[in-house]
Amino acid sequence: MRPQKIEDVVGQTDLVGPGKIIRRMVEAKLLSSMILYGPPGTGKTSIASAIAGSTKYAFRTLNAATDSKKELEQVVLEAKMSGTVILLLDEIHRLTKPKQDFLLPHLESGRIILVGATTENPYISINPAIRSRTQIFEVKPLSPADVKIAINRALTDEEKGLGKLKINLTPEALEHLSQVTHGDLRSALNGLELAAKSTPPAADGLITIDLGVIEECVQKKALVHDKDGDAHYDVISAFQKSIRGSDADAALHYMGRLIEAGDLPSISRRLLTIAYEDIGLANPQAAARTVQAVTAAEKIGFPEARIPLAVAVIDLCLSPKSNSAITAIDAALADLAKGNYGEIPSHLRDSHYQGAAKLGRGVDYKYPHDYLHDWVKQDYLPSKLKQKHYYQPKDNGRYEQALKEQYLKLCQAQGRPFS
């Protein structure tokens, strides 16, 4: 089911959609070497294949870890004899220096258009000499809607898919398959193929793939599912609300459901959001500890990841809570949305150019570090917003209590009393 044209790529619309960078390269036939990085099964190889199919260039695939320099030499020889070759080099972060030194001049000559694929962060794991000669694009997990598109294509394509079989994939099974693979299309299609080819057909030849079959074939139980997929988000919602409500047992229960589904990305994103949205300034140290726990979980993976995640959940549940930070920024954004922003005071404007003083830019600005306690009274907000107070401090933790005391003092000293 690998796409042969760039317009057939599923997902990654920010890269291959109309008017986007890779689509522009293909349409103009002005290709440059690139590195695609992201989780497995998200379309790195598919994008490379589609680029080759759309441009009619030869397409070769090698693995930087397992293929030797000799295989690279053969690809280069082909490029010299027959023209440009698009080379997909998987696991490019494992490219050795001898292979790299051999490859670099051919990238510069344009004979080889390199598409490097990696699950590692290229800014950390890939040699600067390769990075400097490539454009780097992040490939993100597909959405459930994208996965459904690809599944339906596979069910109807008679040449490359399962279209010659009579298959009834139930809505519940489709929903589960699109959700539980977490944007890994390869896993979704592998599970679908196994289900289709291992399920005995009925007397009329119809192969019915229901939820139980899909659960068995992808080895992920549908602890959360319904035909509309709402239950998955219900669990995530219940997870956050349980932490916000300081119920550690409920939060552990809902996180257990997500762990059983193997949904580390959702757990990680939600915990980081909760740490800053719901605990926030009442206990900033808890947010820092959550970042550490999530980092550890992502490094070690399941099943051990459950341990630092549980530490973070219990810590957040039993911490004092404050949503004053999100409330403050949302209030500021709401003013902007209404066009209520005013002009930046002249003394705060950039003065690092010739003629700025004549325009009054930066004039009369008082440098706080030149004054006692590194503070001096002056206006910072636009004049029409001078009395605005977006931050509404709370008293739910020692840290924010101290911030509140300081905030009130500063507002009073600036002539902006807090009411």
Structure notes:
This protein is an alpha/beta fold and 419 residues long. The protein has 4 domains: 6-138, P-loop containing nucleotide triphosphate hydrolases (Rossmann fold), CATH 3.40.50.300; 144-218, Helicase, Ruva Protein, domain 3, CATH 1.10.8; 230-317, Up-down Bundle (Zinc Finger, Delta Prime, domain 3); 342-413, post-AAA+ oligomerization domain-like, CATH 1.10.3710.10. It is 49% helix and 8% strand. It contains 18 helices and 7 strands. The strands form 2 sheets. A 5-stranded parallel sheet has the order 2-3-4-1-5, sandwiched between helices. Helix 5 (97-109) links the parallel strand 3 (85-90) and strand 4 (112-118). Helix 8 (144-156) packs parallel to helix 10 (185-198). It is globular and about 80 Å long. It starts with 12 loop residues before the first helix and ends in a 6-residue tail after the last helix. Residues 221-230 have low confidence and may be disordered.
Mean pLDDT: 90
Please state how the strands of the largest beta sheet are arranged side by side.
2-3-4-1-5
CATH topology of the largest domain: Rossmann fold
Distance linking N and C termini: 64 Å
Q: Give the helix/strand class.
A: alpha/beta
* SSE topology string: HHEHEHEHEHHEHEHHEHHHHHHHH
In total, the number of strands is 7
Biggest sheet statistics: 5 strands, parallel
Please give the CATH architecture of the largest domain: 3-Layer(aba) Sandwich
- Kindly provide the name of the CATH class of the largest domain: Alpha Beta
Instruction: Determine the number of helices (DSSP H or I, runs of at least 4 residues).
Output: 18
Number of domains: 4
